[in-house]
Amino acid sequence: xxxxxxxxxxxxxxxxxxxxxxxxxxxxxxxxxxxxxxxxxxxxxxxxxxxxxxxxxxxxxxxxxxxxxxxxxxxxxxxxxxxxxxxxxxxxxxxxxxxxxxxxxxxxxxxxxxxxxxxxxxxxxxxxxxxxxxxxxxxxxxxxxxxxxxxxxxxxxxxxxxxxxxxxxxxxxxxxxxxxxxxxxxxxxxxxxxxxxxxxxxxxxxxxxxxxxxxxxxxxxxxxxxxxxxxxxxxxxxxxxxxxxxxxxxxxxxxxxxxxxxxxxxxxxxxxxxxxxxxxxxxxxxxxxxxxxxxxxxxxxxxxxxxxxxxxxxxxxxxxxxxxxxxxxxxxxxxxxxxxxxxxxxxxxxxxxxxxxxxxxxxxxxxxxxxxxxxxxxxxxxxxxxxxxxxxxxxxxxxxxxxxxxxxxxxxxxxxxxxxxxxxxxxxxxxxxxxxxxxxxxxxxxxxxxxxxxxxxxxxxxxxxxxxxxxxxxxxxxxxxxxxxxxxxx
Length: 490
Ligand code: NAD
Description:
Blueprint: H1 3-11, H2 14-18, H3 25-30, E1 33-37, E2 44-49, H4 53-72, H5 75-91, H6 93-104, H7 108-128, E3 135-137, E4 145-152, E5 156-159, H8 167-179, E6 183-186, H9 193-205, E7 212-214, H10 221-229, E8 235-239, H11 242-253, E9 258-262, E10 267-271, H12 277-289, E11 299-305, H13 306-322, H14 341-356, E12 360-363, E13 378-381, H15 388-391, E14 398-404, H16 407-415, E15 419-420, E16 422-426, H17 430-439, E17 444-447, E18 462-463, E19 466-467, H18 472-477, E20 480-487
Helix pairs in contact: 1-6, 4-10, 5-7, 5-8, 5-9, 6-7, 6-9, 7-8, 10-11, 12-13
Bound molecules: nicotinamide-adenine-dinucleotide.
């Protein structure tokens, strides 16, 4: 399978574009184009029409026109369409994974598992679509009946990041569609191709025209502004940086528009003296180096208690040294390129700042070559709290290890951040496990595991890491309005 053949099968047919957002084919042809690059080679993979505010407004109108009919279908009808889309995504998973690796850089095996994860969201919400329940309330007077019904919020605008371009889209769209909402989606400019391929499959699955709309754009600001300020859009669902989340929240405030945000993180990964050190090393490798560390739930700060510090640091550094960096299509590669030169520069500046303040590089520390965006997986010790890498999300393959003595103090330090997305810890003492799990101010806590994302569980953060949850039955609630019906005179 080649990336060219995968792209041709899914994206090179002009009629697919014209139906993604309702923009007439001729209009699309006349728009300026933007290029999508392979971060491993710098090759241009495709050139896409750069849609702006007029096209977004058109897509919103189209979604708005489709909204009532979509909401009026039975839950089973919506569910059947989600099942069909799920089936097609699995059937084309190799194509989707190769497009994903080409535009994003992650190793092909990780891309395949992301596509499977995306399909799992469709499956979950195909099932969950049939389980939307209201309630009856015992009325305080005999002549009344009180009932709560659930209805779709209406048209949803979704904006997604480049690091999980397939699963982030599925995680937003599938509960929205299950709830009865039409959607307008803007994928990240770096990774729009897998989104296009997924939408082409949705079209094959038979979703009614206008229910799913895809916007290709070279930047997010104008599309985001239109989605936030157009009154036909009732809700914004965004995954990306906290900085952009703040801006979108401000833009939504005039209309008190509903928002769901999955934002940045600064995950602590704590290894206590009573931990199984080998298991903690395995978990840390997963939590830190999956997707080359470009994951919102990436372990950003590794705290290791002094009794196991040396053993952990030595074993972990040895394993990191074995990780192979390269093109995601090459077998055996576990670390692909970083998404762009900005990401590479952030790695370099975090490392330089740490070294200047006294940190020691145990392995890695440099770009793989003078050109490209490949970076050596890096372990740093003698880390202190004033270093930038301990305060900010690095979003790259950099593992800073911080020694600690006191268990209570490490929890306070782990919580001392504006973020509250994911945290991890390894321990065996049951009393400690409960105490620490409850004390960590994070939306998700991995206990003796380095990986916890699942369509069955609520994904999301506290503090400035977000609002709302995605996945599980809770993810569906975010796309439903609650309406209270009071019947009197009985
Ligand atoms: P980003 O916020 O720059 O971009 C994300 C999306 O927002 C892209 O589609 C982009 O085009 C769009 N965008 C950018 N500026 C915009 C604006 N002014 N108005 C509207 N849309 C705009 O983030 P990124 O660099 O692509 O992704 C990395 C960030 O995303 C990290 O901070 C990471 O932690 C976070 N993230 C969070 C989760 C989560 O579930 N919490 C998951 C993945 C990534």
